[in-house]
Amino acid sequence: MLPVALAALLLGLPAAARADSLLPAKPSVDMRGAPNSVVELDRDGDGKIDYRVVYDQAGVVSREEMDYNFDGKMDTFYYYKGGVLQRIEVDSKNTGKIDIWVYLLDGTYVQRYERDTDGDGKPDLVRTFNGG
């Protein structure tokens, strides 16, 4: 398995999307919230929502969405199960299509990542990591 920061480098993500920015930025909201609620933030003050967190029926984060380049479109999505990060999906080319999928173990280790290199919405490059 591969630590998330190293996976970001191997994925060839733009500098702005590498390492610590592959993980959710520390939000201004609590990772626990009201059951079945959504919190939205405008981090750069331009009037457009660029961060959204969705809480499940237990009040635990189930999904986060971020607009890293502040163009008004969410481009990075974090999916949680029981509050633990399971998968990250990224639109790295700002086309409105997900082209990178990262699957995690224990919210920390990359088990597999997939990349769509030709824009057809299907992974062309798949890497799997085992061990420690």
Radius of gyration: 15 Å
Helix content: under 10%
How many structural domains can be distinguished in the coordinates? 1
Give me the strand/helix succession. Answer: EHEEEEEEEE
Question: How many beta-strand elements?
Answer: 9
**Helical element count?**
1
The termini sit apart by 5 Å
User: β content, as a range?
Assistant: 35-45%
Mean pLDDT, rounded to whole units? 81
Principal-axes geometry comes out as flat
Broad structural category: mainly beta
Write structural notes for this entry:
This protein is mainly beta and 132 residues long. It has 1 helix and 9 strands, in the order βαββββββββ. Strands 1, 2, 3, 4, 5, 6, 7, 8 and 9 form a 9-stranded antiparallel sheet that branches. A hairpin with a 5-residue loop joins β3 (51-55) and β4. The termini are close together.
How are the secondary structure elements laid out?
Blueprint: E1 2-3, H1 4-11, E2 38-41, E3 51-55, E4 61-66, E5 76-81, E6 84-90, E7 100-105, E8 109-115, E9 125-128
Antiparallel strand pairs: 1-8, 2-3, 3-4, 4-5, 5-6, 6-7, 7-8, 8-9
